[in-house]
Amino acid sequence: MFDPPAGLAAHANVSGSAYAEAAADPEAFWWAQARRLEWDRAPEQGYDGQAWPEVTWFADGTLNVARNCVDRHVEAGNGDRVALHWEGEPGDRRTVTYADLQAEVARCAHALTELGVGKGDVVVVYLPVLVETVVVMLACARIGAIHSLVFGGFSASALRFRLTDGRAKLLVTTDGQYRRGKAVPVKADADAAAEGVDSLEHVLVVRRTGSDVGWTEGRDVWWHDVVDGEPDVHEAEFFPAETPLMLVYTSGTTGKPKGLLHTMGGYLTQTSWTSWACFDHKPDDVYWCTADLAWVTAHTYEVYGPLSNGVTQVIYEGTPDTPEPGRHFEIIQRYGVTVYYTAPTLVRTYMKWGEQVPGRYDLSSLRLLGSVGEAINPEAWRWFHRVIGGGRCPIVDTWWQSETGAAICAPLPGVTPLKPGSATLPLPGLSVRVVERDGTTCAPCEGGILVIDRPWPAMARTVWGDPQRYYDSYFADYAQQRWYKAGDGAVIDTDGYVTLQGRIDDVMNVSGHRLGSIELESALVSHPRVAEAGVVGAPDATTGQAVVAFVTVTEGGTASPAGVSLAEELRGHVARELGPVARPREVVLVAELPKTRSGKIMRRLLLDVTSGREPGDTTSLVDPDAFAQLAAGYRERG
Question: How far is the C-alpha of 237 from the C-alpha of 334, rounded, in Å?
Fold first, then answer.
């Protein structure tokens, strides 16, 4: 257990009394958090679930999300405060104050209106991490358009799906982007995706790399031609709280992506408060969430959460190893970053590179660390805490999903004692439980299915165009109880702490024993030679399923005992850590694990490999070629 540092606890934004206050009346608690926002018409209604699973929060209130994130800070006298320190991968930099951001958003809002975009229209944004990406998101929110962000490295087919599914009216893209030191073309993929999409009227293009691009007259327009000349003052319209704000598509790791629809008032209420509470935002903070802006992590904790709280933050276009592995630490040192929120997969990559890389930089400005994307194994947690945080920085390990919109389980950094590997407790006003498939609550320390058993303001309202899929995916299994099924396995211990065990379909049944992928991967990563591990089951005539571990190794480290291969040593290590039943049948050493652009290991693809199936969609992988080599190598093993 790691107690909150005394100095941080004494001045934390939220005290322990928030738990009791919220437990006494959860709806009143969220109503109080809604009052942190600027409303044109303050809501008198709170939660309404009469049409469950269609729910509303604060439905009679009206607000403008962009005003909450920009204008109100300028009007409060904080226009000179830095909103964004932007750093490009080649080293170009830009500083944007809140007054600058207000003017940029105003110009973009005018331009979108000139291009025929209005309330309810879908704007697909296919951009890297640029200031313009943040600007167009806020401009859409300002005029009531719905934004749908697509990662700039996704294929044309992935982009096309989102254009057609949303019936997008406008596509915003760029001539190219910088990736690992190279200027990579983007516009050609955007053109291929846009071809024949009847709903699409214009393609708005940001000049980033100066690359030559194809051009469709009458459809394509340059950002600098249509945005830069617009007025820098814009009168914002106020919208009912249940007005659609954005579509967030699941990554495709579980099949056809689902377009999750989030609305304005409830989403911003929970996003703003959890950002302020979990990251303890202070006026002098320099905050950095490292997620790509296309992911829900960035929507919530890189745009709407921090900006609604008037925070100064860093956004970075490139990869953490360009031009060399210390790039993130160099940025932390340059801007004096105080709060650093990143993914476990990156932490494990740092472990692979070794302590000497961060050791070259001054990281003393850091006061809080954060983890997001998947469960962080205890070994990586301790390394992150000790090496990056200097042993002084609490780690805000957050569990949430695209569907939840904002954090559900996470520590309050001035209140919650931390357990490495655990997302700790449900935040005030939120509630989860771990249950059997029949809905029976599991005993403490017994693994089961994680459900959210109380409605929350930021929850997605539906799957775009397919409400039945929304119901079937998340609510049908526990319809009588009105619970949301997260699809994750978890354990709640005797202290009420929640530890994630991975996706339910990542649980293996070996001779009647249920083994979670996260537990097995954590055991492997606790070995000094292992950087990352992806564990799945494989069919086995004797045990039903057998454990197969795919492992990447660290550079250097201790050698295996004479006559023992590393794979065999790791099999024995898991058996010692978790018991003989957990011993992997195979440990396969690989160069790279298949991971999505958001850093999640695609265990579904590993399961396809071990089951002898043709792997499914790989368009969301960082490196499809590396996965193809992994699959071919496994087949050759027989």
Answer: 39
Q: Are 525 and 379 in contact (CB under 8 A)?
A: yes
Cis omega before residue 467 (within 30°)?
Answer: no
**CATH tag, 6-489:** 3.40.50.12780
Q: List CB contacts of 530: < 8 A, sequence separation 6 or more.
A: 524, 551, 552, 553, 554, 570
Q: With cut-offs at 50, 70 and 90, classify the pLDDT of residue 254.
A: very low
User: Residue 556's pLDDT is what?
Assistant: 63
Name the class of domain 507-637: alpha beta
Q: Residue 563: phi, psi to the nearest 5?
A: 80, 5
Q: Which residue has the higher pLDDT, 613 or 460?
A: 460
Distant-in-sequence, close-in-space partners of 442: CB < 8 Å, separation ≥ 6: 434, 435, 436, 448, 491, 492
- Fold: same for 6-489 and 507-637: no
Task: Determine the Cα angle at 482 with ends 481 and 487, to 5°.
Answer: 100
The domain locations on the chain are 6-489, 507-637
Within 10 angstroms of residue 1's Cβ, the number of other Cβ atoms is 8
Helix (H), strand (E) counts: the chain: 22, 30
- Radius of gyration of the chain, Cα coordinates, nearest whole angstrom: 24
Q: Are 489 and 516 in contact (CB under 8 A)?
A: yes
Instruction: Give the mean pLDDT of the chain.
Output: 93
Q: How many CB atoms lie within 10 A of CB 579?
A: 11
Q: What is the pTM of this model?
A: 0.86
- Token pair 């997969």 is at which residue? 345
- Residue by residue, DSSP assigns 164-191 as HHHT-SEEEEESEEEETTEEEE-HHHHH
Amino acid found at 544: G
What are the angstrom distances between the C-alpha of 411 and each of 16, 27, 56, 101, 461? Answer: 11, 21, 27, 31, 26
Q: What are phi and psi of 530, to 5 degrees?
A: -100, 125
Identify the CA nearest to 2 among candidates 369, 392, 309.
Answer: 392
Q: How far apart are CA 560 and CA 545, in angstroms?
A: 28
* pLDDT number for residue 40: 98
Distance separating alpha carbons of residues 230 and 613, to the nearest angstrom: 54
Structure tokens at 495: 């202290």
- Angstrom distance (rounded) from CA 202 to CA 298: 26
For residue 498, list its beta bridge partners.
424, 492
Q: Output the CA–CA distances (angstroms, integers) from residue 181 to 90, 599, 623, in the order listed.
A: 7, 20, 16
Dist CA 390 CA 367 (whole Å) = 9
